[in-house]
């Protein structure tokens, strides 16, 4: 059994800008979250300075002040980092749920206004799946993914700045990892979006088959069709499992590849930096601070790679929802006011068809109904 992909051609930038339009009324709350992201990123960058202060003061300069400055600095640093973490998650999360509420309300209201012809051809379970499952995926794109995207990008930028501050030659080597990593991200983005479309479509089919079986349970028993319905469900259920596994497989192989490229870069940087330490061109505290900042980059980089799956799923879900919202609503032509009606009804040359391919149900019908 083959289940087709969603018919719409997705333009990620256009879809995401439209999704962000729903967040625009709550810009103030989101900006508070951005301040938390900046604070979180700054504290991650300050971690390298704390390591440099500790090693330089305790083992090289023998400064007794590190007895209280370093422990106090650690408490302040992690306290502010925790505050930034809370603010950067809560406020964008609040905005995200507002977006979901607005989008769900708009979609439900549009369902009520769509013409009967649309409801005749659309699958009810697919419509229900878009209102529940697909819109919930948009929450990931509007909250978790966008929070990680901004916060981790700021963290990486801050740590790169720290690397250049500590040693610009070593930092230049780190930047050479950028091109291969960006190519991997672009490639897996396309895969994530493709598999997310299939998963959302298959979820609608699982809902459809289930709903049809539950609604017609008496008919199924009369015709002893339990085995037939179980086979139908197994087909759509297996396709859903297969689509999820393709997504999981892509996500699982991405991290090892990224880590392998990072490990090769790290090996080259370690070789160069250790040679500088041995030649006394680089202090040990500077080297350890640089190494700390470089290792701290790997965590936000890994999170950035991991968020592309929910981000692309949210974009695909948003596209499927907007595809419905862009359908024209049924025109209301019954706007003629009646001061007083006698109750007589006249049909003059009425024709009607559910769809053009099935032909007319009524053809040139004229009918008069007297009052009462």
**How large is the radius of gyration?**
30 Å
Envelope shape? elongated
Helix content: over 70%
Distance between the termini: 55 Å
Structural class: mainly alpha
Key terms for this structure?
mainly alpha, 2 strands, disordered N terminus, 372 residues, 11 helices
Task: Write structural notes for this entry.
The protein starts with 11 loop residues before the first helix and ends with a strand. A two-stranded antiparallel sheet has the order 1-2. It has 372 residues and is mostly helical. It has 11 helices and 2 strands. Helix content is 78%, strand content 4%.
Short description:
By secondary structure, the protein is mainly alpha-helical. It contains 11 helices and 2 strands. It has helices spanning 12-23, 27-60, 66-113, 116-121, 124-142, 144-166, 168-175, 178-215, 217-222, 226-278, 284-325, and strands at residues 345-352, 362-369.
Strand and helix map with partners:
Blueprint: H1 12-23, H2 27-60, H3 66-113, H4 116-121, H5 124-142, H6 144-166, H7 168-175, H8 178-215, H9 217-222, H10 226-278, H11 284-325, E1 345-352, E2 362-369
Antiparallel strand pairs: 1-2
């Amino acid at each position: 059994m083959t289940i087709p992909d969603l018919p719409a051609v997705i333009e990620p930038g256009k879809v995401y800008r439209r999704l962000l339009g729903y967040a625009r009324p709550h810009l103030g709350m989101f900006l508070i979250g951005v301040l938390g992201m900046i604070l979180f990123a700054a504290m991650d960058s300050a971690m390298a300075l704390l390591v440099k202060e500790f090693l330089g003061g305790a083992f090289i300069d023998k400064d007794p002040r590190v007895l209280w400055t370093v422990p106090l600095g650690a408490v302040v640093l992690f306290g502010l980092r925790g505050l930034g973490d809370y603010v950067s998650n809560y406020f964008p999360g609040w905005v995200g749920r507002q977006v979901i509420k607005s989008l769900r309300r708009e979609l439900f209201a549009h369902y009520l206004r769509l013409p009967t012809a649309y409801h005749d051809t659309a699958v009810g379970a697919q419509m229900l799946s878009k209102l529940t499952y697909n819109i919930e995926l948009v929450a990931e794109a509007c909250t978790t993914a966008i929070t990680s995207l901004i916060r981790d990008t700021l963290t990486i930028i801050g740590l790169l700045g720290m690397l250049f501050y500590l040693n610009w030659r070593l930092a230049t080597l780190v930047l050479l990892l950028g091109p291969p990593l960006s190519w991997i991200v672009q490639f897996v983005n396309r895969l994530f979006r493709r598999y997310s479309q299939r998963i959302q479509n298959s979820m609608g089919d699982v809902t459809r088959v289930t709903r049809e079986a539950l609604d017609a349970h008496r008919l199924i028993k009369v015709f002893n069709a339990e085995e037939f319905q179980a086979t139908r469900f197994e087909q759509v259920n297996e396709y859903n499992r297969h689509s999820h596994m393709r997504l999981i497989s892509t996500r699982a192989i991405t991290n090892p590849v990224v880590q392998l490229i990072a490990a090769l870069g790290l090996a080259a940087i370690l070789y160069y930096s250790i040679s500088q330490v041995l030649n006394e061109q680089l202090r040990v505290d500077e080297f350890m601070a640089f190494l700390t900042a470089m290792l701290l980059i790997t965590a936000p980089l890994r999170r950035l790679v991991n968020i592309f799956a929910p981000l692309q799923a949210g974009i695909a879900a948003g596209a499927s929802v907007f595809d419905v919202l862009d359908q024209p609503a049924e025109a209301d032509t019954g706007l003629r006011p009646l001061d007083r009606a006698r109750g007589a009804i006249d049909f003059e040359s009425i024709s009607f068809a559910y769809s053009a391919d099935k032909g007319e149900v009524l053809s040139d019908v004229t009918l008069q109904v007297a009052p009462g």
